[in-house]
Structure formats: structure tokens, C-alpha cells
Amino acid sequence: MKQRYLETIRAHSRLSNNKLNYWCNDAWKERKDSDIETQQSLKKLAIKHKGVGELTIYDTMLWLGHQPTKLHLHSGTLVGYKNYCEYIGWTFDSTKKQLEYSDLPPNCNGVAFENLEDWFCIYKYNMKLLHETILKNKNVKQKCKIGC
User: What is the pLDDT of residues 9-26, one digit of tens each?
Assistant: First the structure.
């Protein structure tokens, strides 16, 4: 499982392998017991690592075994979320790049941010399947690939 997240960090990141290895080593040392403390620690650490942004922090939290405290809308996820909002008639706020449960349609509440991030990206052009997947709350094993 951890290998999957490491591959996701590598796929989403624009860091060189060398810089990414430094980031992962430092991030591993900064892990905390709680999700919020870990996220805050990684945000402080990212200042020292040029090129590390919100998506790398998000993926790193999953790699460290923590759940993200918000849904990060990277390019593929943003397209899927926007399309889904239009599909179900939900007002879409295009200014937000990270969402809390209160920002999401009610049927998304209780679904792990990790699954929503994957599903919005994977099914970004198949709203019927995305809607069914969210409603069933299946544990999809597919992952978002680079360029999605």
C-alpha cells in the first residue's frame, strides 16, 4: 500500500528523483500521531523543499498513513468534481482548490477524501459511473495516473 502512494507522489510531483527522495526522507522524520499535526508539520517542511506543493503534501500524508483533512482538487480531480457538480445540480465554487465536507454535495459526506480524489479523477468524464460509485461507497483499488 505504501508503495502505491510513493508511486502516486512520484507521478504527481514535478520534483527530480533526487529532490523527491530528500523530501520523502525528511517527511518520514516529521510524521506525527494525528492527521492535522502531520499536515501542519509537512506544510512547514515544504518551505525548505522548493517545488513541494499542496498535492505533494496531500499524497505524502497518504504515504505516511494519514488521512487528508481536506480534498485537494488537482487538475484531473477538479475536472471530475466540476462535471459531477453540474451533473447533480450542485453549485460549484471554482475559487477553492481544497474542499471540506461542508463544501461537498451531501452524498459525498462520509466518503474518505482519498476515495473521492481518486474517483473524481478516474471517472471525470463518466458521471453516471461516478455517481453510482459514490452512492455505493465502493473501495475502488484503481489509482489516479499522471496526466489525468
Answer: 887 778 888 888 889 889
What is the Cα–Cα distance from 51 to 134, expressed in whole angstroms? 33
pTM for the complete prediction? 0.72
pLDDT beneath 70, residues of the chain: 1-4, 138-148
Helix axes 17-30, 35-48, angle to 10 degrees: 140
- Assess contact for 97 and 104: CB atoms under 8 A: no
The closest alpha carbon to 6, from 61, 48, 86, belongs to 61
CA distance 36 to 66: 9
In total, how many domains does the chain have? 2
91: domain range? Answer: 71-136
